[in-house]
Write a structure and sequence with these properties.
InterPro entries: CoaB-like_sf (IPR035929), DNA/pantothenate-metab_flavo_C (IPR007085)
CATH topology: Rossmann fold
Protein name: Phosphopantothenoylcysteine decarboxylase
Structural class: alpha/beta
Shape: globular
Distance between the termini: 13 Å
Radius of gyration: 18 Å
Oligomer: single chain
CATH class: Alpha Beta
Number of strands: 14
Pfam families: DFP (PF04127)
Mean pLDDT: 95
Bound molecules: cytidine-5'-triphosphate
Length: about 220
Amino acid sequence: MHVLLTAGPTYEPLDPVRFLGNRSTGKMGYALAEAFAAEGAQVTLVSGPSQLADPANPRIQTVRVETAAEMFAAASAAAEVADVWVFAAAVADYRPAQVAAEKIKKAGETLTLELVKNVDIAATLGQQKRAEQFAVGFALETTNELAHAQDKLYRKNFDLVVLNSLRDPGAGFGHDTNKVTVLDAAGQIVNFELQSKAEVARGLVSLILARRAAKL
Ligand code: CTP
């Protein structure tokens, strides 16, 4: 089995020394890569800038990228041959319309940046997903969590969507622990306890493998 995983943030350059980014550490995605590899899968881990070291497991091939466009190119190259796609990256939705060739100098009291939309990696690949392929996305919501997550599942053609809790202390960005809820297209819900990201990853991988087996 081959797994394509996206992980970490993306950095969208503004000038040679600045970028727009986010606080994703990549921990959840890297933990998923380890958990899939432990089950014997070959993993292509397409990672945005993360402080984490490349996983040492020989079954995990790490491809380092910076921008959403680079992540899309690397993910597209691996998607066709992958049996399972997991989109754990926190992709920047927008990038600066222009990348200045020289460092932007301080000038007026305000500065307005124009941003343009980035490619939606999961949604674009979702349009070419074959019946035997299995896609999993992540969602981070602050209102109407379940409804928004389910809407994302349909829009992006996911088989499962993993909803990150923002309400629980210790869950989400930067933490070593996480608390997630998994939804499928039928509206069935699986709740995971607050536990280490490694434990959450093992639980998610066994759920994904079971659901995929049931689908085949
Ligand atoms: N995703 C992606 N490419 C993007 C944006 C998101 O592949 N350009 C993936 C994420 O990796 C995640 C899922 O889509 O698996 C949902 O990401 P999220 O940021 O919650 O969704 P958005 O479509 O950006 O929706 P919104 O920001 O409106 O909530």
